[in-house]
TrEMBL record:
This is DUF881 domain-containing protein. It comes from the Bacteria. The chain crosses the membrane at residues 6-23. Residues 44-82 form a coiled coil. Belongs to the UPF0749 family.
């Protein structure tokens, strides 16, 4: 009986110890689970905060991109306008190119305006130059564009309704290498006119040619966009 009593006490004590250990383990695991839950909540909070931050940065980048797009379009349009103004001779321009001088061969040749006009020498030279790299051209200071007229008026030639007289100085800006090759060809229009007409042609390359804008109102009064 005594032994049974002792066994019960020992068993009860062991059970108490086991229950105590189980409770402590449960509390420990509970703390762990609570800790993990809080950790997850914290991670979610941080993640949400980062997402908000990234969304804000994305918004800022998109706004900056939109500004750059507008700026790029503005710059592109400005460039188009500037190129158009340049082609229409509305602006002064300085760049590399060539200078061609055409004059009477001698005093006996006299006024060569009729020869120049009848044989369309200036027009032919301009077309040749355009084929060979010319972008912008002036004759005796008169800028040429697609609306310019070169006509004989009495004993002189008019360009843009402005009278010019010999010698005719043609300034050309464009592809420097192509223009240089052109004037150094032995068989070109410049060589032919010296052979066939009482005129002399001189030319030089120049890396600092200035073409003045047109001095008369351009015929194109309004420019419509696309």
């Amino acid at each position: 009986m005594k032994n049974r009593y002792v066994l019960i006490i020992i068993t009860s004590a062991m059970l108490g110890v086991f229950i105590g250990m189980t409770n402590r383990e449960y509390e420990r695991k509970k703390d762990i689970y609570i800790s993990k839950d809080e950790s997850i909540k914290k991670e979610i909070y941080i993640a949400n905060k980062d997402i908000k931050k990234l969304n804000k940065e994305k918004q800022n980048i998109e706004e900056e991109l939109e500004k750059l797009k507008v700026k790029y379009e503005d710059e592109k349009n400005i460039k188009k306008v500037e190129n158009l103004k340049s082609r229409l001779s509305y602006t002064d321009i300085t760049n590399s190119g060539i200078v061609i001088n055409i004059d009477a061969l001698n005093e006996e040749a006299g006024n060569i305006a009729n020869i120049i006009d009848y044989n369309k020498i200036l027009i032919n030279i301009i077309n040749e130059l355009k084929i060979n790299g010319a972008k912008l051209i002036s004759i005796n200071g008169e800028r040429l564009n697609q609306y310019s007229a070169i006509v004989l008026a009495g004993n002189h030639i008019n360009i843009n309704s402005v009278p010019i007289a010999q010698p005719y100085e043609i300034k050309v800006i464009g592809d420097y290498n192509k223009l240089y090759k052109y004037i150094n060809k032995k068989n070109n229009y410049l060589t032919n006119i010296e052979t066939n007409y009482p005129v002399k042609v001189e030319f030089k390359v120049d890396k600092n040619i200035t073409l003045q804008k047109m001095n008369v109102p351009n015929k194109l009064e309004y420019i419509k966009g696309e």
